[in-house]
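Lab meeting, item 3. Inverse folding demo.
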């Protein structure tokens, strides 16, 4: 009996519909690795199996249902959130977990906001196809400068020695924390297959990078030094916990580690809730 390997490429939606795609809740059990329809005795190569985890909800918090969330980060008791849509994008700082808003700034003109990250005394915000990253004072959100970059901007996070950015492909690009210049890159793989549509990023305290996989309810944990996916995390429990009457919810997007803990805050575009979760072994 012949076999057919189904890869992430087979599941890829049209990129032109990226910002207007309907909610697609895909149950992807093995990201980027081949799923082979073969005789049940055929064995998967060991290096093609990532650890399978799922989200366990610890707490539920309110979230602005009008926020087209693109970036989420927690630092020094403050929640930073950036949103998208041309002419409607903003960056906001609020107390965490209380939710009291400290400061909000709108992106100028028709800039389409994307991922955000906090570094030292600054916060960076990418733009989608506008080719600029905006650096702001992390307290006042006053704009400090703009830096141009090539290609699309999707996600960004900060490791101690470099920034990490995504552009919707399987590539993570490393950038200098001071100049924003490219200093390297890595291809993300699960076994022998690449994992693309890497979106919003979170650099965790253990040195790994977490990425939302766009249009899915899956988060992947990545070793930034090798690009290897060490875990695929099923986040369908958080989507299932959303109120049934919610009319306009879009894709999962937004992940932030709660500093000093093993817990993360996750949400999505136009979601009325944020969820404090742990990543636990999938039954």
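The presenter then showed the designed sequence:
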């Amino acid at each position: 009996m012949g076999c057919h390997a189904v890869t992430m490429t087979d599941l890829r939606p049209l990129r032109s519909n990226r910002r207007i795609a309907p909610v697609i809740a895909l149950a992807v059990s093995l990201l980027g690795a081949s799923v082979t329809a073969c005789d049940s005795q055929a064995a998967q190569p060991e290096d093609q199996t990532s650890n399978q985890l799922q989200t366990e909800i610890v707490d539920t918090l309110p979230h602005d249902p009008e926020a087209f969330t693109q970036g989420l980060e927690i630092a020094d008791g403050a929640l930073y959130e950036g949103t998208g849509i041309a002419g409607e994008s903003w960056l906001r700082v609020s107390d965490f977990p209380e939710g009291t808003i400290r400061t909000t700034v709108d992106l100028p003109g028709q800039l389409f906001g994307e991922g955000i990250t906090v570094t030292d005394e600054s916060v960076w915000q990418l733009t989608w196809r506008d080719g600029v990253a905006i650096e702001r004072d992390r307290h006042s959100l006053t704009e400090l400068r703009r830096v141009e970059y090539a290609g699309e901007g999707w996600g960004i996070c900060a490791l101690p020695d470099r920034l990490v950015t995504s552009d919707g492909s399987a590539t993570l690009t490393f950038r200098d924390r001071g100049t924003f210049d490219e200093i390297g890159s890595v291809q993300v793989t699960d076994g022998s297959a690449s994992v693309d549509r890497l979106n919003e990023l979170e650099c965790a305290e253990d040195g790994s990078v977490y990425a939302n996989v766009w249009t899915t309810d899956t988060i992947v944990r990545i070793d930034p030094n090798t690009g290897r996916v060490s875990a695929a995390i099923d986040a369908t429990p958080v989507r299932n916990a959303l109120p049934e009457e919610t009319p306009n919810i879009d894709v999962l997007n937004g992940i932030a580690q709660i500093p000093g803990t093993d817990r993360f805050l996750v949400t999505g575009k136009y979601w009325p809730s944020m969820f404090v979760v742990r990543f636990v072994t999938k039954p």
